[in-house]
C-alpha cells in the first residue's frame, strides 16, 4: 500500500508526505483556531482571518519540519551521503539515506544540523517579533505579530524536542557519535539506544501519571522512541555484520519469472508448486513488475481464472545493482516495505535478493 505521496523535489531530493502527516495537519490547524494567545488565534475576528492564520500556522509547521530535515540532508550531501527521500511523518521528518556515515564526526555534524536550522529560524522570528512589537503599534497588525511569534516558538520546541538524547531523535545520534569516539560502533549504538529506551520509559511513566491533562501524547511519543531505539540498535548490528558483503554475493541467480499474461490461478498453482511467495514479472526479457502472494490474496477466488498477473502486479520496480552493498538492498526493502529487490546489471535482470537471503547471510556471518 502506498502510504506517502511525493510533493516535489528540493536539492534533488524527493519530498514525501506520509499519510499520518496529512491527517495531523488539519488537527493542528483546528487546535490553533481554538487556543487562546500565544498558542492560537481563538480571539481573532473575523472568523475567516482566524482560520486563515491557523491554517497558515499549521502549514508553517510543515515547512519548518521540512527545513529542519533539509538541514540534515545538506550536511549529509556535503559529506557524500546520498539522500533517497525525505518523508514527513506525524511527529516530524525522516531522511532516508543510503548509509548513515560511520564516522562519528560526520554523524555529529549531520545530527546537529537539523536542530541548528530550527534554532536559527526560531530565534530569528522571535527577534523579528520583539523588534516589530516595540517598533510600531499598528503595523503589521497584532494577530500577524503573534503568528510570527508562534512559528518562532514552534521552531524552538522543534530544536529542543529533537535534542532529546534518544533514537530516533537527533540527540540520540549526537550521543552515539560521542560514544563512538570512545568505543566500537556497535557498543556505542547499544549504549545510546539503552539511554534512549530509558528515556522512553521515563517519558511513558510521566505520560501515564499525567494522562488526565494530555499525558497521552507523551505516552505515544515514548512508544515511538522506544521502538525507534530498538530498531536502530538492531539495524546497526546488521549493517556492521554485513559490511563488505555485496548484493552479488548473496542474491539468488536462478530465478523463476512469470509472464504478465499468466492468470492469477496459474500463478497460485506455481506458488504452491515452488513454495516461493514472490516472482518478477518479465515481458520480452524486460522486468516490468513484481507479483507476490499479498497481491494474489486481494483477488477473490472465483475471479482468479479471469484476472491476469499484469493487473495485480506492483509496477514500481525497486532495483539494486550487483555491486551495491548488501545493506543498501536491505534499506531499500525497509524504506519501501517490500520483501525482495530485483538485481540488474547493464539493464538486464540478473537475479533477485530477498529478505530471507539477507537474514540467512547475517546468521552465517554472525
Ligand atoms: Zn532532525
Walkthrough of the structure:
With 366 residues, the chain is of the alpha/beta class. It folds into three domains: 160 residues, no CATH class; 65 residues; 119 residues, CBS-domain, CATH 3.10.580. 57% of the residues lie in helices and 15% in strands. The protein is built from 13 helices and nine strands. It has a four-stranded mixed β-sheet. Helix 2 runs parallel beside helix 4 and helix 6 packs antiparallel against helix 7. The protein is globular and about 75 Å long. The model has no long low-confidence stretch (mean pLDDT 85). It binds zinc ion. The site of zinc ion has 5 residues, from helix 2.
How would you summarize this macromolecular structure in one to three sentences?
The chain has helices at residues 19-34, 47-78, 104-135, 142-162, 170-180, 185-209, 216-241, 247-250, 264-274, 293-297, 309-312, 326-336, 355-365; strands spanning 4-10, 13-18, 83-89, 92-97, 278-283, 286-292, 319-321, 340-345, 348-354.
Topology diagram in text:
Blueprint: E1 4-10, E2 13-18, H1 19-34, H2 47-78, E3 83-89, E4 92-97, H3 104-135, H4 142-162, H5 170-180, H6 185-209, H7 216-241, H8 247-250, H9 264-274, E5 278-283, E6 286-292, H10 293-297, H11 309-312, E7 319-321, H12 326-336, E8 340-345, E9 348-354, H13 355-365
Parallel strand pairs: 2-3, 7-8
Antiparallel strand pairs: 1-2, 3-4, 5-6, 8-9
Helix pairs in contact: 1-2, 2-3, 2-4, 3-4, 3-5, 5-6, 6-7
Bound molecules: zinc ion.
Residues 68, 72, 114, 162, 170 line the site of zinc ion (ZN).
Amino acid at each position: 500500500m502506498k502510504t506517502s505521496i511525493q510533493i516535489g523535489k528540493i536539492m534533488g531530493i524527493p519530498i514525501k508526505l506520509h499519510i499520518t502527516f496529512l491527517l495531523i495537519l488539519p488537527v493542528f490547524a483546528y487546535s490553533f483556531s481554538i487556543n487562546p494567545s500565544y498558542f492560537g488565534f481563538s480571539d481573532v475576528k473575523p472568523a475567516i482571518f482566524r482560520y486563515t492564520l491557523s491554517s497558515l500556522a499549521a502549514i508553517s509547521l510543515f515547512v519548518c519540519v521540512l527545513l529542519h530535515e533539509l538541514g540534515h540532508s545538506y550536511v549529509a550531501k556535503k559529506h557524500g551521503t546520498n539522500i533517497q527521500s525525505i518523508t514527513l511523518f506525524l511527529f516530524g521528518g525522516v531522511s532516508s539515506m543510503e548509509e548513515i556515515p560511520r564516522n562519528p564526526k560526520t554523524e555529529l555534524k549531520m545530527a546537529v544540523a537539523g536542530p541548528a536550522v530550527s534554532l536559527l529560524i526560531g530565534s530569528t522570528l522571535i527577534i523579528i517579533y520583539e523588534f516589530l512589537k516595540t517598533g510600531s503599534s499598528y503595523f503589521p497588525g497584532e494577530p500577524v505579530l503573534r503568528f510570527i511569534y508562534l512559528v518562532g516558538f514552534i521552531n524552538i520546541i522543534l530544536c529542543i524536542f529533537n535534542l532529546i538524547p534518544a533514537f530516533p531523535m537527533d540527540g540520540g545520534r549526537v550521543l552515539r557519535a560521542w560514544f563512538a569516539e570512545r568505543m566500537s560502533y556497535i557498543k556505542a549504538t547499544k549504549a545510546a539506544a539503552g539511554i534512549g529506551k530509558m528515556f522512553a520509559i521515563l517519558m511513558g511513566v510521566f505520560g501515564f501519571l499525567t494522562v488526565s491533562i494530555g499525558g497521552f501524547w507523551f505516552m505515544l511519543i515514548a512508544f515511538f522512541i522506544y521502538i525507534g531505539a530498538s530498531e536502530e540498535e538492531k539495524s546497526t548490528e546488521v549493517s556492521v555484520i554485513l559490511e563488505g558483503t555485496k548484493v552479488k554475493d548473496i542474491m539468488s541467480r536462478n530465478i523463476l519469472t512469470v509472464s504478465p499474461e499468466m492468470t492469477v490461478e496459474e500463478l497460485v498453482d506455481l506458488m504452491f508448486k515452488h513454495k516461493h511467495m514472490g516472482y518478477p514479472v518479465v515481458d520480452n526479457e524486460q522486468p516490468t513488475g513484481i507479483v507476490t502472494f499479498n497481491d494474489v490474496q486481494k483477488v477473490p477466488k472465483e475471479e482468479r481464472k479471469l484476472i491476469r498477473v499484469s493487473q495485480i502486479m506492483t509496477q514500481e520496480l525497486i532495483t539494486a545493482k550487483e555491486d551495491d552493498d548488501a545493506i543498501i538492498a536491505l534499506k531499500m526493502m525497509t524504506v519501501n516495505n517490500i520483501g525482495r529487490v530485483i538485481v540488474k546489471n547493464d539493464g538486464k535482470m540478473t537475479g533477485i535478493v530477498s529478505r530471507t537471503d539477507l537474514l540467512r547471510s547475517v546468521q552465517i556471518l554472525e
